[in-house]
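Researcher: We're teaching a course module on how sequence relates to structure. For the next exercise, students receive a sequence and then see the predicted structure as C-alpha cells, so they can try to spot secondary structure elements on their own. Here is the exercise chain.
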Amino acid sequence: MAPRPRKPSGHALDVGAVAEIPSIFANWNDLPVRNIAYREREDPIGHPIYRFGIAPGVDVKSLADFGGKRIAFSHGQAQGALVLRALQAAGLTKTDVTLVELPSTGDAYPIALASHRVDIAPIGGVLIRRYINQYSPDGATLIEHGLRDDPSHLYAPQWVLDDPAKAAALAVYVEFWAQATQWINDNPEAWIEGYYVKDRGLSQEDGQYLVRTDG
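Model: And here is the predicted structure for the students to work with:
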C-alpha cells in the first residue's frame, strides 16, 4: 500500500494566497500542494513588488555591488527567492555574500538596515516609502533589481483537491478571486478608502502610493 500524503496537524486551511515560492517549498518538504490560480502584474519590471533597501552609508549602486555585503535572507519566502535571483543576475553566489537569516515580518528589514545589522534587504509595500522618508537623511538609499517578482498564486493541498465538493467550491472561489482583482483595478479610490485606510489603518497618502506602485 502506498504511503498516505503527510498532512499538517489541524487542517486549518483549504487554500492559501501566496507568491511563487511557498508551493515549491511545500513540495520540497513532502507536503503535496498544487497551484490552482495565477496572476501577474501588467508591467512587472516597471512596477516591482520589492526594492532593495540599502543601509545608510553603504555604497551599493547596483546588483554588481552586492559582493561582500550582508544581505537579509528569509528561507521559503518571496524575498529570499528574490535575493537568490539577484545574486545570480549579478554573477555572484551565496559564498560571495553573507546571508543573514531574518524573517521578513513587519518592519524587521527596515529596522535591520537602519541599525546596520544588514547592508541590503528586499523591502516591499508601504515600507519602501517609509524607509526612504525616514532614513534617507542619514544616507539610506534604494536600488531597483530589474527582475520579475510579481507572480501570485492560490494553492491548495492535494487532499483538498481530491475532495469533489471542496474542489468544486474552490473553482467557484477562483472566479470570485479573479472578479475581485478586476474590481480593485477598476475602483482604486474605493479600494484605498475601504481597504488601505479603513481596514489596514494606513493613510490616504500611503494607499495612493501603494496603488501607484501596483501599476
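Model: If you want an answer key for the exercise: The chain has a mean pLDDT of 92. The longest strand covers residues 33-39.
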